[in-house]
Amino acid sequence: METSKITLEVVAPHGLVVREDVDEVNAIPGSEGEFGVQPGHMNLVTTLKIGVISYKSAGSEKYVFINSGYAEVTASSISILADSAEKAEDIDVERAIAAKQRAEERLKHADNVDFTRAAAALERATARIQIAKR
Amino acid sequence: MPGLKEIRKKIGAVKSTRQITKAMKMVAAAKFRRSQGRMFELRPYADKMASVLADLSGSVDKEHPLLQVRPRKKVEVLVFTGDRGLCGAFNTNIMKAATRLIKELSAEGVDVTVSTVGKKGTDLFRRRKANMRMSWTGLSGKITYANAQEIAQNLINNYVNETYDEVVIVYNQFKSPMVQKVTTAKLLPIAELTAEGAESDNSAEKSQAATEFEPSEQAVFETLLPKNIEIQIYRALLESQASEEAARMAAMENATRNAEDLISQLTLQYNKARQAAITKELIDIVGGVEASK
Predict the structure, then answer these.
(1) What is the pTM of this model?
(2) Per DSSP, what are the bridge partners of residue B201?
């Protein structure tokens, strides 16, 4: 049975969020679509969208929220640079729900400039709530 | 010679001042440790970013607007100061350096616009009627990455719009709790993308394994460039913050020591005056006794 692992590293400006040897990474929100990574993946460099990384480590599934960024994949490691990142257990759900409502409110009567920002905020809040609920 | 009561009152006043400066020192020390921690936390991210950009910069074409060098006609100077005073020469040093830089640039016939971070710098340059463009205040103690993004976005947009042809930042670089160095650095256009040590492993590692880029190498490079600016702003914010608190710590330490010196001088003076009063009273009594004999 293959026992090889892959090192997942998520770094954000506010610090190192995850550094763990994981069995596999099920989903990374790449800008060209979501993808999974198993040990021995070919070298890949990609930009990321707002979304959720899910990975399997020691038999359990874990989730990390990331707010866009960049990923570098090699056969034995994945390093991710994100504008911000939070583990599922660190997410403040109430804040995310409040942020979602605020963003929705703003989307209803926003001009063009605000629209992109509010849309991004909504996307972030939704992703956060999604993981926290899992 | 002031009376006993006045001296006692003065000692009381100096003591309460000492208490305040001591408390401020403790607060500054706590804040300093926090901002120093955040500075260290940023390091892995910043290092990684620098090495990735250095890796990429060899193989992409440099058409990106942030890399374009234009003739230097208008320069933006971004000055990082604190929101509050009572931190020794911290704000003064940075403003002196900025003023000198602005003077030099003007002498060269360059149009200068000034943007500031921090209330102190904003107030000064407003008073001097400098050509102010933007100011960000109220960030002290609660700097977030989002602040850096906002500032970076503003600088980048205006650079691309050709509001100015160059951006220079002036901030206090944090060397150690005792040493802060006023630093002037060119932010835009991005001149060099070489990280220390990245050069060597660039050629060694890169050539052996083919790497796929999504959407493309160029696109990855171009999304990372503005992020690199954000990081530099964020770092300047954090370093400036840590320097400010370190400077405040030192200033308050000095103030506390001065207060202690003053208290011991005043106590000495008080005791002398008290002794003199007692002696005088004794002489009076002895004199009275002698006279009544």
Answers:
(1) 0.82
(2) none
Residue B227 one-letter amino acid: K
Determine whether the interchain pair A83/B217 forms a contact, defined as Cβ–Cβ distance below 8 Å: no
Query: ipTM of this predicted complex?
Result: 0.74
- Tokens found for residue B68: 């374009």
> Chains A and B: how many Cβ contacts under 8 Å?
69
Q: How many angstroms separate the CA atoms of B129 and B34, rounded?
A: 35
Measured between beta carbons, the chain B residues lying within 8 angstroms of A13 are 41-42, 45, 145, 148, 231, 234
B87 carries an active-site annotation? yes
The conformational region for residue B80 under phi > 0 = left, psi -120 to 50 = alpha, else beta, is: beta
**Contact yes or no for B252/B86 (Cβ under 8 A):** yes
B286: tokens are: 């002895």
User: How close A113 comes to chain B (CA, Å)?
Assistant: 14
In tens, the pLDDT along B228-263 reads 899 889 999 999 999 999 999 999 999 999 999 999
CA distance B94 to chain A (A): 26
Domains contained in chain B, CATH given: 4-26+251-285 (1.10.287.80), 33-193+212-249 (3.40.1380.10)
